[in-house]
Amino acid sequence: xxxxxxxxxxxxxxxxxxxxxxxxxxxxxxxxxxxxxxxxxxxxxxxxxxxxxxxxxxxxxxxxxxxxxxxxxxxxxxxxxxxxxxxxxxxxxxxxxxxxxxxxxxxxxxxxxxxxxxxxxxxxxxxxxxxxxxxxxxxxxxxxxxxxxxx
Length: 151
What we know:
Blueprint: H1 3-25, H2 32-43, H3 49-56, H4 60-72, E1 76-80, E2 88-92, H5 94-114, H6 120-142
Antiparallel strand pairs: 1-2
Helix pairs in contact: 1-5, 2-4, 2-5, 3-4
């Protein structure tokens, strides 16, 4: 398989999944770009913005923008840490709590469709391969100017 074919498949899987999830969550007033942040906050109440940036491998400005939208829409609230005022912690609001289970069900349904026909061993093997690809790709991200192992 050519590397470009592989990249094309990964992009298509991502696009198809995002289109499905985006259409399903639209009725809750939340957008695809904020969903992962919302679910990370829901799963780790009090998580701070720096932790979100690390988990998503994005810059602080991207996190701030997504959180502002979630906060303006009433799904989360941000609170300055009592010990370090520069540290902002994130919490789900009552409005967010009302939709969290539905959002988790939508994500679970998407995963069910994506993994249709996979055994548990097959899913585990795929995860191991994707994890290895992710680790390998970090070499590319760390030094984009360097030719790594190219003959």
